[in-house]
Amino acid sequence: MKPLYTLGLAALLPLVAFAQEAGALDPSVQVEVVVEAEVVAEPVPYGPRNAADVVFADLLYEQRPVVVFGDSPEDPNFLRQMELLMRDLPALEQRDVALIIDTDPEARGDWRMRLRPRGFSLVLMDKDLRPVIRKPLPWEVREIVAAIDKFPLRRQEMLERSPAGR
After folding, report:
1. pTM, whole model, 2 decimals?
2. How far is Cα 26 from Cα 33, in angstroms, rounded to an integer?
3. Could you give the CA distance from residue 135 to residue 72 in angstroms, rounded to a whole number?
4. Residues 66-81: pLDDT tens digits?
């Protein structure tokens, strides 16, 4: 077996000598490396987004929409819901929630046509974009988070992140 190793090493010696002659192993040779500058977009701050700016299909299996509908921006239930949501945005962000608001019933946007709210409405949807819970009154973030944590896709996500719970 030793003669076989010796023969293999002897076959590689000419390659090492050739590499040294070409300057590949010479530390005095400077190689210029050109690196293209990456354009890094600033992360968009997490918060509510207008329904007119959000494409329904873009959220499929990416985020779970929580949609807040109101008849006007001054609707008391809408204002109360937004106040409650702003108290604990990190809990929603942790659960991949896309917070979507729509206060213009006259616009008849895509979200209104699909979900058909009447007056104030809070709609919790799963990542497969199917409405799971509809509420006619404002909910605390604690209640929203507890409901989301019971969704089948959310339970699967939690098991994948922490498999010790199986």
Report:
1. 0.71
2. 17
3. 17
4. 999 999 999 999 999 9
